[in-house]
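Hi all, posting the design record for the shared folder.

TITLE: backbone redesign
STEP: 1 of 1
STRUCTURE INPUT:
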């Protein structure tokens, strides 16, 4: 699915440049994606970064895990790729806006997740 990032996710933030290469990564098993989210969530809870909006980061983690749970272990490749893009964007600390550098650091992560869950028909998992 290389080259589908731009039409698939209509992002307003600086996230687009960081998202596009994620579409070209090989797919990893869903349990790996779950483990990545859990590890980053646990890191955030343990470190409680002062400059970050911890509540937003934990909300992104919670919605990401719910999304992965609904997809199951063997989703269709398109859904798998979209979910992987959202997760990999979230767990990257230095994405469009560095997660831990400001109170708005997780806003772009929420934007990417929101676009993905909407594409997957899981609008109830979108964050405000």
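Okay, here is what came back for every position:
SEQUENCE:
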């Amino acid at each position: 699915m290389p080259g589908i990032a731009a039409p698939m996710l209509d992002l307003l933030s600086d996230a687009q440049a960081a998202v596009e290469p994620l579409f070209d990564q090989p797919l990893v098993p869903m349990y790996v994606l779950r483990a990545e989210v859990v590890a980053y969530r646990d890191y955030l809870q343990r470190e409680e970064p002062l400059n970050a909006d911890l509540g937003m980061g934990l909300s992104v983690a919670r919605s990401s895990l719910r999304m992965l749970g609904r997809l199951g272990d063997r989703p269709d490749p398109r859904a798998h790729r979209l979910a992987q893009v959202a997760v990999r964007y979230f767990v990257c600390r230095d994405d469009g806006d560095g997660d831990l550098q400001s109170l708005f650091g997780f806003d772009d992560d929420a934007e990417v997740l929101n676009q993905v869950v909407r594409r997957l028909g899981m609008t109830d998992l979108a964050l405000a």
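COMMENT: The first helix runs from residue 5 to 8.
Let me know if anyone wants the other runs.
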